[in-house]
Amino acid sequence: MSHNSFGHMFRVTTWGESHGPAIGCVVDGCPPLLPLTETDIQVFMEKRKPGQSRFTTQRREPDEVKILSGVMVDEDGVQKTTGTPISLMVENTDQRSKDYSEIKDRFRPGHADFTYDAKYGIRDYRGGGRSSARETAMRVAAGAVARKVLDGVTIRAALVQVGPHEIDRSNWDWNQVDQNPFFAPDEKAAAYWADYLDRVRKAGSSVGAVIEVVAEGVPVGLGAPIYGKLDTDLSAAMMSINAVKGVEIGNGFEAARLSGEENADEIRIGEDGKPVFLTNNAGGVLGGISNGDPLVVRFAVKPTSSILTERKSITRTGEEIDVMTKGRHDPCVGIRAVPVGEAMMACVLADHFIRHRAQIG
Amino acid sequence: MSHNSFGHMFRVTTWGESHGPAIGCVVDGCPPLLPLTETDIQVFMEKRKPGQSRFTTQRREPDEVKILSGVMVDEDGVQKTTGTPISLMVENTDQRSKDYSEIKDRFRPGHADFTYDAKYGIRDYRGGGRSSARETAMRVAAGAVARKVLDGVTIRAALVQVGPHEIDRSNWDWNQVDQNPFFAPDEKAAAYWADYLDRVRKAGSSVGAVIEVVAEGVPVGLGAPIYGKLDTDLSAAMMSINAVKGVEIGNGFEAARLSGEENADEIRIGEDGKPVFLTNNAGGVLGGISNGDPLVVRFAVKPTSSILTERKSITRTGEEIDVMTKGRHDPCVGIRAVPVGEAMMACVLADHFIRHRAQIG
Amino acid sequence: MSHNSFGHMFRVTTWGESHGPAIGCVVDGCPPLLPLTETDIQVFMEKRKPGQSRFTTQRREPDEVKILSGVMVDEDGVQKTTGTPISLMVENTDQRSKDYSEIKDRFRPGHADFTYDAKYGIRDYRGGGRSSARETAMRVAAGAVARKVLDGVTIRAALVQVGPHEIDRSNWDWNQVDQNPFFAPDEKAAAYWADYLDRVRKAGSSVGAVIEVVAEGVPVGLGAPIYGKLDTDLSAAMMSINAVKGVEIGNGFEAARLSGEENADEIRIGEDGKPVFLTNNAGGVLGGISNGDPLVVRFAVKPTSSILTERKSITRTGEEIDVMTKGRHDPCVGIRAVPVGEAMMACVLADHFIRHRAQIG
Amino acid sequence: MSHNSFGHMFRVTTWGESHGPAIGCVVDGCPPLLPLTETDIQVFMEKRKPGQSRFTTQRREPDEVKILSGVMVDEDGVQKTTGTPISLMVENTDQRSKDYSEIKDRFRPGHADFTYDAKYGIRDYRGGGRSSARETAMRVAAGAVARKVLDGVTIRAALVQVGPHEIDRSNWDWNQVDQNPFFAPDEKAAAYWADYLDRVRKAGSSVGAVIEVVAEGVPVGLGAPIYGKLDTDLSAAMMSINAVKGVEIGNGFEAARLSGEENADEIRIGEDGKPVFLTNNAGGVLGGISNGDPLVVRFAVKPTSSILTERKSITRTGEEIDVMTKGRHDPCVGIRAVPVGEAMMACVLADHFIRHRAQIG
Description:
Four copies of one chain form a homotetramer. By secondary structure, chain A is an alpha+beta fold. Chain A has a single domain (5-360), classed as Chorismate synthase, AroC fold, CATH 3.60.150.10. Chain A contains eight helices and 18 strands. Chain A has helices spanning 38-48, 101-104, 113-120, 136-149, 187-202, 230-239, 260-263, 337-357; strands at 5-6, 11-16, 22-28, 65-67, 71-73, 79-81, 86-91, 154-162, 165-166, 209-216, 244-249, 267-269, 275-277, 285-286, 289-290, 295-301, 311-314, 320-323. In chain A, the strands form six sheets. In chain A, strands 1-2-3-7-4 form a five-stranded antiparallel sheet, with helices on one face. In chain A, a hairpin with a 5-residue loop joins β2 and β3 (22-28). In chain A, α1 (38-48) packs across α4 and α4 (136-149) packs across α8. The first copy, chain A, is globular, with a radius of gyration of 21 Å. The first copy, chain A, starts with a strand and ends with a helix. Chains in contact: A-B, A-C, A-D, B-C, B-D, C-D. The interface between A and C is medium-sized, with 16 and 16 residues. β11 (244-249) of chain A pairs antiparallel with β11 (244-249) of chain B. Chains A, B, C, D: NADP(+) binds at residues 48, 54.
């Protein structure tokens, strides 16, 4: 039982608090002989890193990842994994030496302050401590390692809804995702959201979002019934991300509205002699096992709980107060959840990919 | 790593196929000294049992559960748990000796036939084998044991949507749930659904559904960050149920549409001197830890894949065919998922309840 | 965390008490397509079964194993594993309806009575309940399934010491093992032990024993550093058997007495071009990973705690008493531990064999 | 499944290679509110640190441990655990920039070189890489944290045999353990060993050893049948230490020689009204559960495999060679295994202590 680990054969353990000296993770179970450098990981760190646009927190963190173990330069000068645990670390550099006394004894509504305090009797209140979204940096680092395991698999994510504003799916263009600060696959939506989020940000408010993660090239057979289903693990992985309140696979909640005729994915034999599903309502999973179609997962992120409007709350000692959260925050924390969602997909797939090699998992 | 187990300290392992001699489960980690009889479990089996109305499969199974280990009659004549594993078994009695050759080599669209075959190279095709919803009977049995651990906690579930037809939440009445064959908390919805599902059933079609599970009286502090969150485990538990395609906690996907002001649950001190949340958008969980408010989980079930309309498919050997699934099936498998959802909630809570006793989990 | 399970990918969960209706196990993670019948398992049950000679308990149990799930007869009429959990059950038939009130409230020295009672506040006192060596029947059943996974591996065990009397290793003959009631690989030792144990038995006394388990044909590479070492898992597996107090690998405790020069296993290239170890002091494991040499494990079993001589003890309520254990007992419980040791070796190897397929475990 | 982790609720994951930039561990599941500073840990690091006498390797490592997460200074200025993962790191400082080409392609007999290479196809040959005993530094660090959980428990270890030379148990004096470079509880043995090991060292040879670990003040009830037994976990913990080849509990292998009358620990009621065992042949465990008596575990360490005498071996490419291991090595690696054995005992007990709080584990 591990409160700070996930995965079974590709197993990630994260540690660290928002304002401690560093954060890090240990990736255990990565197969040997995969080329891996810090640059391979840094590429993904850059996507999640704060302070890259006015729509995310202005905290400045270079998020430079260091590999402390688990790799070795081989005879050809290529640094490769050795099969031993890979320890990754990022030093925290922008922990402002501000006075935290203001939130030290106050429970910020929507945050984990109240429950951490109730459970542990102590908590690192500086920047949310362990419950800060800063922890997700290490998921992204682990996800970059996971991608090395997944040769031939493409994992991408996009923001598909901000507040009540959804993208127009007929405009979907993966090439757009890196062209705007929202990871939007729809140019027009991105433009609209920029305007909308500026208003939200200036009002000191926040909004929620929906992220869609898609994995293509997934081999048939990943996942294991009954409690090791691929969708079960994906669901848990996404739900474990800060602020996530809902997860769906393929048609998701929409499937409840459909008839069996509408929802079934019919099968034919393709030109290459292999089975082809004519639709992908299932989102790539049947009975918990991948069917070769793209894996499609969506998750909903609640609005950032840190807002400038005062909300009713209490102190540790039970006084009624009004709380307003100043400081550097994301008006829509869902934006930076996009690379995190990708990373979680990668980690789950790497785990099941390795398990599947043994045929049983 | 266990493909057929879930939970950590309250750990359930299920076994058995739809048409084998029996199905069963082992509940490991149940605390000692809890009164437990077969009748305590049977009550819940009755709720899930097939053939109780014309809206569920006509397979006739008494689903009589036997306790094979883990209990002992004490000096006062009360049968109690002993802390050793509790083995539960239900014999299958209505495995019709029909000819299965028709589906033996055919992949039924929407079912796990194709993926099981691709992964294992062999599958028990009789009634879906291991992938049959029959397995959920043992979840219900385990859930009945879990409830014994949860003194003071009330766990209830209701069907809130059938196909596109939702209940009217202003009519919500828990007392109605046992008064209709749908576990509907809304009398009018039940009447409408009866009519609607009759049409679906007669057409040989099927529809999806949404179930809501609510736990009241949950102590503050259950759940453990970061990867042992209560909502993470609830999400995985529900997603592991057959045909489930989406899960949400509290406001769920709706939270994406809200502002931080709308979504935050404000806190005051109640008359009893304890913290009170003025709303429950969070669904009872903050930072992965229960906050004392009702836990609210919803999940979406896809329409039953077995329908009388022909669908395009292929055989094991790659021939293109049309498949129609005759036999005894639920027109809306979501109905019988209601007690299963309750059971999964109970098992997850029992697990976290025991973990929390040690303060750390 | 599972108190009643062992193994990771080949995972065995046992349940049942000595005098309950049945005992059983669930084998999860067995690969598909392996031929498996009840007869395959029964062969090994017969070796452990009580009442086969005057040197073991006279309890009469047919120990007939039933397969309740996880197998399917294929098109050629061969029953094979399907990759789903294999549930095995043995009904208890010789639970004498005797009056247990005598031991109900008394703690038998050397038994688990005191500690079970202290931990759980309740215990099944009938025949030792869960702590009875009867549980090991299911290990033997699981071991028979494990052997199916281990094509080309030969697993054998022998009794090498009874009380202070060791075999003469220069007489070692595996063919003798099935020719005497002790699984002795030395004909003369068997003859001597028969005489010796008759005296022990008639005196109502008991003695300890040492068992040696050897696996030949083990592929190079099984086991994973640092905490998944093959010898670590073997050690735990043997120590979990009732009454075991010591475990050693290869030279074991003798290695402490040697110099580095004596203990190192030198390596040459054999006629087949493959590495050959000139000695096997290591017992087949280097750095926790199998080196291709025979795996050699020994474990020590303490004398049966049930004896006819009175011993000082106390009751549940703290009265000082003298306890004598009547009933049907093994004068040397180490004898029946021989097939159990083999089974545990098989289960550990099957687990690591499957893990190794994924290269990392 | 975790190759580099051990424990369930108090869970330790280690990482790092002998000659990488650092080694470290993550302690997950440590209860909150325990005072913990780097000094608390450093005390134990000092005991295991190399280069402290001429009888251990001359590698110079300050082994300065840093706490990177999981603690917080409370209002009284006391640094305490918070219930979040504790990340510990030690930088490697004395990785000599020597030429490793000599051992790069050679398999040193007795070492893990051959098996790591066979399993992973790549290995960090510098100083043994991951298989180096350097990893045990982090076990000692984790053990220091574990001791914080074990209020009232005293854990001590001693060297009781070096090569064939055992201590005289009638001389046993715990106060002597810190007075000599061997952790010997017998002054005379220490003097003899000094002389003996000087000869071994000068000859470039090595010898094995036996360590005894004793825990006093252990509460009744730790450990869980059947596969979560306290002695099972202790056995695995000790066997996972580098070079360990045998483990025994209480009487251990000697128990095999005894009769039931000799081996049974009789019970009386002590002056304080509590049960007292008149002897401790069991070593503090009955049926896998602690009985309140001192836990006694012994383990055997093989002689250091690095010796100056040439041994036959092969290269990676299959050439037959003679290998001699130069460099800085312990003539008796068993000496520094003493604090490691203590640490493993502490970690296992902390794990079971926390599990036991939940009554079931």
